[in-house]
From TrEMBL:
Residue ranges occupied by any PucR C-terminal helix-turn-helix domain in the UniProt entry: 268-324
Protein name: PucR family transcriptional regulator
UniProt family annotation: Belongs to the CdaR family.
Residue ranges annotated for the CdaR GGDEF-like domain, each copy included: 100-218
Length: 336
């Protein structure tokens, strides 16, 4: 090709360029690196230079430039296609893993390709920020770079799902999940991270993932401000809401009379919430609500009069506190 270019001074034809692109694609598919291939092209051009007409140097360099550019284009095209195919395979695997789809045996085989041994127990952490985070989001790249730099040799899978950051790690490696939570919190500008419990097998990943999602949902409904939530610390809430009708009956029975108060039940439910969150210390609860202690104490007395239950009494307190938790979970009084 170079000899003909030197003899005629022509540029490479469309057919020649397409042939070079095809060769570049095949080279990429065969696993050859682009740097070595470019070096080989230049080496061949240098070796054949003495046999070419000495006055055709400009034509030779132009042809070499065209040839390498076409070859590299084909190589890069094949690499990009391979990356996209790998991303599609990875995304399909993640969807199957987190939704519990596909044959579990086949899923375990596929998991090894992505560094997971599903015969072990795994824990899933999920981070949610104010805006959705996808694979190409800067926050996703920032967290992945930090975690890989710190735990590169560990069997960890980092990904995104439904706009959230997800980290899957062996169940006994809590240091990985704690570090992920710290990085995700920073990268999402104060987002919230929930960590499920460790569970064995492919089904265990789904279970832990769902626990983390449920913890995020509970935090939103209960207005929990903690940046890191652990499903193990929130087990009481799923227990309380397992029988929704029974919980609704308790809320209506214990707190229903508050609806007869001036201003409705909401201010008094907020009073009870602050009181219990403050460890039943009236002064602290009053400060949180921006009330005087006297005004806050009057509200407690009003609650006692309407419901017949004294928030300061240890026996009544348990019923009221459980009812308040149920009210927050059910969205009472607005949603029930």
């Amino acid at each position: 090709m170079l000899a003909e270019v030197c003899a005629t001074g022509r540029r490479l034809t469309r057919k020649e360029l397409e042939s070079l692109r095809a060769r570049g694609e095949r080279a990429a598919e065969a696993g050859f690196g682009l740097r070595a291939l470019v070096r080989r092209h230049v080496s061949v051009a240098r070796d054949t230079w003495p046999t070419l007409a000495p006055t055709s140097g400009g034509h030779v360099l132009a042809a070499v430039e065209q040839a390498i550019d076409a070859f590299a284009e084909g190589h890069e095209r094949a690499q990009l296609l391979a990356v996209r195919q790998e991303e599609a395979v990875r995304r399909e695997f993640i969807d199957d893993l987190l939704y519990g789809r596909s044959d579990l045996g086949r899923l375990a085989e596929r998991a090894e390709h992505f560094g997971l041994l599903l015969s072990r127990a795994h824990t899933v952490a999920v981070a949610q920020g104010g805006t959705p985070v996808e694979d190409t989001h800067p926050a996703a790249r920032q967290v992945e770079s930090a975690v890989v730099a710190r735990f590169g040799e560990r069997r960890i899978l980092l990904t995104t799902k439904d706009g959230r950051l997800v980290c899957i790690a062996p169940g006994e490696q809590d240091d990985v999940l704690s570090f992920f939570a710290k990085q995700a919190y920073a990268a999402t500008d104060g987002g919230r991270v929930a960590i499920g419990r460790p569970h064995p097998g492919a089904g265990g990943v789904v279970h832990s993932y769902e626990e983390a999602l449920n913890a995020l949902d509970l935090a939103k409904r209960l207005d929990i401000q903690e940046p890191v939530l652990r499903a193990a610390d929130l087990l009481v809430y799923p227990v309380l809401t397992r029988d929704r009708q029974a919980m609704a009956d308790l809320v209506e029975s214990a707190l229903g009379p508050l609806q007869d108060a001036r201003g409705g039940a909401r201010p008094l439910v907020e009073t009870l919430t602050a009181y219990f969150d403050a460890g039943c210390v009236a002064a602290e609860a009053a400060r949180r609500l921006g009330l005087s202690v006297r005004a806050f104490t009057y509200r407690l007395e009003r609650i006692h009069k309407l419901t017949g239950a004294d928030p300061s009494d240890s026996v009544h307190r348990y019923t009221l506190q459980t009812a308040v938790i149920g009210a927050r979970l059910l969205g009472w009084p607005d949603d029930v």
